[in-house]
Automatic annotation (TrEMBL):
Name of the protein this chain belongs to: Replication protein A subunit
NCBIfam families assigned: rpa1 (TIGR00617)
Compartmental location: Nucleus
Function of the protein: As part of the replication protein A (RPA/RP-A), a single-stranded DNA-binding heterotrimeric complex, may play an essential role in DNA replication, recombination and repair. Binds and stabilizes single-stranded DNA intermediates, preventing complementary DNA reannealing and recruiting different proteins involved in DNA metabolism.
Family classification: Belongs to the replication factor A protein 1 family.
Length: 593
């Protein structure tokens, strides 16, 4: 097969130098992938990012994969020298370098992986004109824009049903629905004080966060209402998203300015109500701690409102716990807070959908609705209708397993078919192509004693490292507050072994408490009191056999890659349950004494 003839030669030159012509002449360019490289993780976490090099035979250019395209890498479809069809893209210029943002990509598998075709040269082009809102027919979210003519009675020059504009665009307008609006928050610093609020905006192509500060709080807070649809027009700052402050899968965010134009939209028919990416309740066992998920289920139980006092601020908070079930025959506890807790009036057996809940491993698995999350009662969506039909027909009389039950079992909250020996973990190359989860029964043989804990922020849910200011206070840059002392949290490297091999595991605070039998604060106090007592505590933790629930995942360290094994949870071995499990295995293999 003459693969070279299938490549869209000249496409890169047209995309950067003649975007309108490229969209007409090369609507779906076919290119060769010459290189794939994962990028180092950014501070604050976020999704994995990949840089690739694409060639049209004449030229090659550096490209960034948008996170929604990562699956082609995870599925091992996008490989070196494969041929790809680019369905959605954005051309950009960053510090004089031409970058192609890949928003949609298909691997043409029948073309295989031929050798590099031709001798492509590094592409050079003029930066895209600042006046262009989109390039190659692509908008901010990666969905083709639908151009609509301006309404005569309005002063806005153009309306776009697509998502937010590129950062270098001068004039643009989006039409979006407010799906969530925060309370007004204030801050006080030596340099001054201020206030802010934020909204999540949704259109048919995606979601983006927008924030208003100080004067813009007075201008826009009362105007923007949850559920309302608005036209929002520049000037409005477009910048890279601060991932530590948002749970939206968007690389950008907006900041309202003094002259930002916001108008209520009368026609709301073409703007979706809310967009969910549901995880079923059984699958929560495979979701790592502190991840953010959307969940839907039938409301089984509703607790009364209770009050807790924050250990860091001393402020009281209202909370309410709910129990959800779904057709996987699992249940989960969901905690809601503040006004959501006090105003909650849904009846048991209602279907409730949550967008933006944080996963905790307390008691196995539980969820907490984030301040940026939303809750919908009996939403008019297919998943809700399906669950309602299931519950009315059979679910009402079903019994449900909880992740709390799984946590108490000897298999460390994992499934039985994922039990592995250390040798199996290595020989099966777990974590090499995608993240894998497995259960391990192993004995601790060594714990690194240097840097076993770090000073963390005391604000609930933060856990970021704080800095000793030298004046008796510890400062958290994320929360912009100072504390009289930190809360120490474990971050440990532990070597374990079984009868087959040995393995280094990374452990965080919850697991460290199980291993050491005390909090990191208590262990740090021992070190201050007597180094010998601290050494004795580590010695007592050695030679203990535990159940470990682990995740294997490829990490990048500088120019090298290696698999990292992280412990998601740990528990004592229930030898009675373990004996019963082994007896059942013997029975299954037909072995008799």
């Amino acid at each position: 097969m003459d693969v070279e003839s299938k490549i869209t030669k000249g496409a890169l030159d047209a995309i950067f130098n003649d975007p309108e012509g490229a969209n007409a002449k090369f609507p779906v360019p076919v290119l060769q992938c010459l290189q794939i490289k994962p990028l180092a993780a950014q501070a604050g976490g976020g999704a994995e990012r990949y840089r690739i090099v694409l060639s049209d035979v004449n030229n090659y250019v550096q490209c960034m994969l948008a996170t929604q395209v990562n699956h082609v890498v995870h599925d091992n479809k996008l490989v070196r020298n494969c041929i790809v069809r680019i369905t959605q893209y954005q051309a950009n210029s960053v510090k004089g370098k031409n970058i192609l943002i890949i928003l949609g990509l298909e691997v043409i598998e029948q073309f295989g992986t031929p050798d590099k075709i031709g001798e492509p040269q590094a592409f050079e082009a003029k930066p895209p004109a600042a006046a262009n809102t989109t390039i190659g027919g692509q908008n901010f979210y990666g969905v083709k824009q639908e151009e609509t003519k301006p309404k005569p009675q309005q002063s806005i020059p153009s309306r776009s049903a697509g998502g937010a504009p590129l950062p270098y665009a001068h004039k643009w307008t989006i039409k979006a629905r407010v799906t969530q609006k925060s309370d007004i928050r204030t801050w006080h610093k030596p340099s001054g004080e201020g206030k802010l609020f934020s909204v999540n905006l949704l259109d048919e192509s995606g979601e983006i966060k927008a924030t208003g500060f100080n004067e813009q709080v007075d201008q826009y807070y009362d105007l923007l209402q949850e559920g309302g649809v608005y036209y929002i027009s520049s000037p409005c700052k477009v910048q890279l998203a601060k991932k530590q402050f948002t749970n939206l899968p968007n690389d950008y965010e907006l900041t309202f300015e003094r002259d930002t134009v916001i108008e209520k939209a009368e026609d709301q028919s073409n703007v979706p109500q809310v967009r969910f990416n549901f995880c079923n309740i059984q699958e929560l066992q495979e979701v790592e701690k502190d991840a953010t998920v959307d969940i839907i289920g039938v409301l089984k139980d509703v607790d009364e409102v209770s009050q807790i006092v924050s250990k860091s601020t001393g402020k009281p908070y209202e909370k309410r716990e709910l129990t959800l079930v779904d057709d996987t025959n699992y249940s989960v506890r969901v905690t809601i807070w503040g006004k959501s807790a006090t105003n909650f009036d849904a009846k048991p057996e209602s279907v409730v959908a949550f967008k933006g809940t944080k996963v905790s491993d307390f008691g196995g698995r539980s969820l907490s609705l984030l301040s940026s999350g939303t809750m919908s009662i009996d939403p008019d969506i297919p998943d809700a209708h399906r669950l309602k039909g299931w519950y009315d027909s059979s679910g009402r009389n079903d019994t449900f397993s909880s992740h709390n039950n799984m946590a108490s079992m000897g298999n460390a909250t994992g499934r039985k078919d994922q039990d592995k020996s250390i040798l199996q973990v290595k020989e099966e190359n777990l974590g090499m192509e995608q993240q894998d989860y497995f259960n391990l029964k192993a004995t601790i043989v060594y714990i690194k004693q240097d840097n076993f804990a770090y000073p963390a922020c005391m604000n609930e849910g933060c856990n970021k490292k704080v800095t000793d200011m030298g004046d008796g206070t510890w400062r958290c840059e994320k929360c912009d507050v100072s504390h009289p002392k930190p809360e120490y949290r474990y971050i440990m490297s532990v070597n374990v072994c079984d009868h087959t091999n040995q393995l280094w595991l990374s452990c965080f605070d919850d697991v460290g408490r199980v291993i050491m039998g005390m909090t990191a604060d208590q262990l740090m106090a021992l070190r201050e009191e007597d180094d010998a007592k601290m050494a004795q505590a580590f010695e007592e933790a050695n030679c203990r056999k535990l159940n470990f629930r682990c995740r294997a995942k490829m990490d990048t360290f500088g120019e090298s890659q290696r698999v990292r094994y992280q412990v998601m949870s740990a528990s004592q071995i229930d030898y009675k349950a373990e004996g019963a499990r082994l007896a059942e295995l013997i029975k299954q293999f037909g072995i008799s004494s």
